[in-house]
Amino acid sequence: MSLSEEAIQALQGLDTAVAVINPTSWEPVFENAAFFRFFPCSGGDGETIFDRVAGLDRDKLEKRLGRGRKYEFAIDVRQDPRTICLNLVFHPASEEQPLVLLEAQNVTKQREAELMLDSYSKMSEKARRELEREKERVEKLLLNIMPRSVYEEMKDYGTTTPQKFDSASVLMLDFVDFTEMAVARDPGALIAELNDIFSAFDRIVELFDCERIKTIGDAYMAVAGLPEPNSDHATQLARVALRMKRYLEKRNAAHPTQWRFRIGIATGPLIGSIVGIQKYVYDVFGPAVNLAARLESACEPMKITVCQPTEELIRNNFSLTQLPLVDVKGFGEQQLYTLDFEDRS
């Protein structure tokens, strides 16, 4: 089996690396300069294509060509100072052409383009994941300062509308002798304990579908009945206050530092709105906010004081103790009550 002079001249003039192989001995009967440069021989006798192309699977090649089909094999060849990516294509022999034609297609640019696209794809995916993480972080931060429904409105419309709630309840909590504790104790340890307590309060507030509005120093403010109206707002907030008391009593029994609170709960109309332009905060306004703060200030340590409108809403489900009439600044004479426990009978 041999090639004509015309065929040899034509193959030698090709830029593509080609070789013609005897399918019986698998020795090249012809190769052009480009092929020899990629797969040089060692100079020994009887060298087959398998000796010169590392990793080429003879069984797979023979089976594929035996079925009259092309066989392709990818290989990287070192050509200093770079690596060339080649795709070897073996064309099967036939009766008219009893030799196997081997093309070594240089696919380096194609591979580099694929790698570049893959790299861009990975970079894009990484950027997308980072953006998602940043969005989640921002959402988490915003949900710490505003209710979810307010956040959703702001996300959808870029602004929020102040809302009036005809009846809602406000809880104001403050710790007894916190200023003295701040002076006497290590600040890091003190704030760590305060964070632990406030985190527990947050879980309690969420458990009863209420909303923590804000903390200012050692003061804690929560509401019920907004931003989603709820007819049981006073009951839910009373349960929050009792659960906070139970939590703090258990904590005090297990810790050397004793934390004692005062809680005031008031009920009335409220307005809820986002306040601020660059620094957002969700806040509530109304007489009930001021009254709850007054009740908290006048409350005994580890007691929960509620106003009469709150008592009227919860009296059927809770045990309360009536207090003497009190002159509350800004509100005149008020009938107040101490919330003792939930009556489950």
How would you explain this protein's 3D organization?
With 345 residues, the protein is an alpha+beta fold. The protein has 2 domains: 102 residues, PAS domain (Beta-Lactamase), CATH 3.30.450; 187 residues, Alpha-Beta Plaits, CATH 3.30.70.1230. The protein contains 11 helices and 15 strands. The strands form 3 sheets. Strands 6, 7, 8, 9, 10, 11, 12 and 15 form an 8-stranded mixed sheet that branches. The chain has a 5-stranded antiparallel sheet with strand order 2-1-5-4-3. Strands 13-14 form a two-stranded antiparallel sheet. A hairpin with a 2-residue loop joins β7 and β8. α8 runs antiparallel to α9. The longest helix is centred in the middle third of the chain and has 38 residues. The relative contact order is 0.09. It is found in: Membrane. GO terms for molecular function: adenylate cyclase activity; nucleotide binding. InterPro entries: A/G_cyclase (IPR001054), Cyclic_nucleotide_synthase (IPR050401), Nucleotide_cyclase (IPR029787).
Summary of the model, kept short:
Residues 117-144 form a coiled coil. With 345 residues, the protein is α+β, with helices and mostly antiparallel strands. The chain has helices at 5-12, 33-38, 49-52, 58-66, 108-145, 148-157, 178-184, 187-207, 233-254, 287-298, 308-314, and strands spanning 17-21, 28-31, 71-79, 82-91, 100-106, 163-175, 211-216, 219-224, 261-275, 281-285, 303-307, 318-322, 326-328, 332-334, 336-342.
- What number of domains? 2
Beta strand %: 25-35%
Q: Helix coverage percent of residues?
A: 40-55%
What is the global morphology?
Answer: rod-shaped
Radius of gyration: 41 Å
Protein name: Adenylate cyclase, class 3
Pfam families: Guanylate_cyc
GO molecular function: adenylate cyclase activity; nucleotide binding
Main location: membrane
